[in-house]
Design a protein that fits this description.
The chain contains 13 helices and 14 strands. With 354 residues, the chain is of the alpha/beta class. It has 3 domains: 83 residues, no CATH class; 174 residues, 3-Layer(aba) Sandwich (Rossmann fold); 70 residues, no CATH class. Strands 6-5-4-1-7 form a 5-stranded antiparallel β-sheet. A 5-stranded parallel β-sheet has the order 9-10-13-8-14, covered by helices on one side. The longest helix has 23 residues.
């Protein structure tokens, strides 16, 4: 079986770095540039079917020469472009593979930055931040933990909370009212998977005004509203607070030209933090990291039980309905409920059919 390692390429705008696949067809040049046809590895990003990975030239791939078929070699020899004939050896020093330890450091640094930036929102140093990453990796938990700590004295003094986490759908007028409620300095509004406001023109225009780079940020509602009048909300106010957007949407993957222009304008007003958890491997390493840091300590398991849960997930990666921290908690609940039959129950409740 021929294999190829893509050192630098892309599939449907998702970067491909140092990934090995089964080679189906050698390098070809089409209307949109060079590509190689491989069998996807069955992961979330690369389905188990024939897929085309875009590469600039043969320099961006490492072929296993010892396994290449005679037809593959002839196809390469018949190519007139010398730069495309070069097949790198597997030991080429330019090929760099990130170790698990290095990946864990990278992931931890991203979440440390998330904590630091959230602190910045509470003291006015940061006025807006977009946090992008897959579901169930702890995006919301870290933000809420920092905000809870920052508002501890307000809670003890029984003062009004200076932050709120908004989840679910929200209308444009609801957004306007919410921003008015948290318009003071030191206030933070967190929009957690509240993607409806990112997909609505009116809401986006309100957000652009609230997060503008000018010294004074005024928001206006120029349509008569009984709701605003009944709540005593003016049709114009100055917003001095901060906003955090937690989303699964990767802005660069949005295809609608009209919407992309709005999102680009919003992104230009915000710090954009991509947690870089784009692969199954990264998600599994994140799970290992959080469990090791004490995620399951409250369950009071016997020694080795937490490692057993992680190992069980790792053994059944392709069958899990969702690879996330939520799944860890679901399995931990089953392990706590029945130490003898939790695996049988998990097979039915958190896994797809074999």
């Amino acid at each position: 079986m021929s294999t190829v390692t893509i050192t630098r390429g892309s599939y449907r705008n998702v970067p491909v770095r140092n990934r090995t696949f089964r080679l189906l067809k050698d390098f070809q040049v089409g209307a949109k540039g060079g590509f190689v046809t491989v069998l996807g590895d069955g992961s979330e990003q690369f389905p188990a079917k024939a897929i085309r990975i875009r590469v600039d030239s043969m320099r961006d791939m490492v072929a296993d020469i010892s396994r290449n078929t005679e037809d593959s070699l002839m196809a390469l020899k018949n190519n007139d472009d010398d730069s495309l004939l070069r097949i790198e050896k597997p030991e080429d020093p330019e090929v760099y593979t990130e170790t698990d330890e290095e990946a864990i450091v990278r992931i931890r640094q991203r979440f440390d930055i998330l904590d630091e930036m959230t602190h910045g929102c509470t003291n006015g140093a940061v006025r807006a931040m977009i946090v992008s990453g897959p579901p169930g990796v702890g995006k919301s938990f870290g933000v809420e933990k920092v905000l809870d700590e920052a508002s501890l004295f307000d809670k003890l003094a029984q003062r009004r909370q200076k932050f709120e986490v908004v989840k679910g759908a929200m209308s444009a007028i609801g957004l306007y009212a919410k921003l008015f409620k948290y318009a003071d300095e030191g206030c933070v509004v967190v929009f957690d998977d509240c993607d409806s406001i990112l997909l609505d023109d009116v809401s986006l225009n309100i957000l652009k005004a609230a997060l503008d780079s000018s010294k004074k940020r005024y928001i206006s509602w120029n349509t008569d509203s009984r709701l605003l009048r009944s709540e005593g909300i003016p049709d114009r106010f100055e917003f001095k607070g901060a906003a955090i957007f937690i989303t699964n949407i990767k802005f660069e993957h949005v295809r609608s030209k009209k919407l992309k222009d709005h999102l680009d304008a919003l992104e230009s007003r915000c710090h954009y933090l991509d947690l870089t958890l784009d692969t199954t491997r990264d998600k599994m390493l994140r799970i290992k990291q959080i469990v090791k840091d004490g995620m399951l300590d409250s369950y009071d398991f016997e020694d080795g039980a937490s490692d057993e849960i992680v190992a069980y997930m790792e053994e059944n990666l392709k069958r899990l309905r969702e690879l996330s921290l939520r799944t860890v908690l679901k399995i931990a609940d089953l392990r706590k409920m029945s130490a003898s039959s939790w695996k049988k129950i998990a097979e039915v409740t958190v896994m797809k059919k074999a």
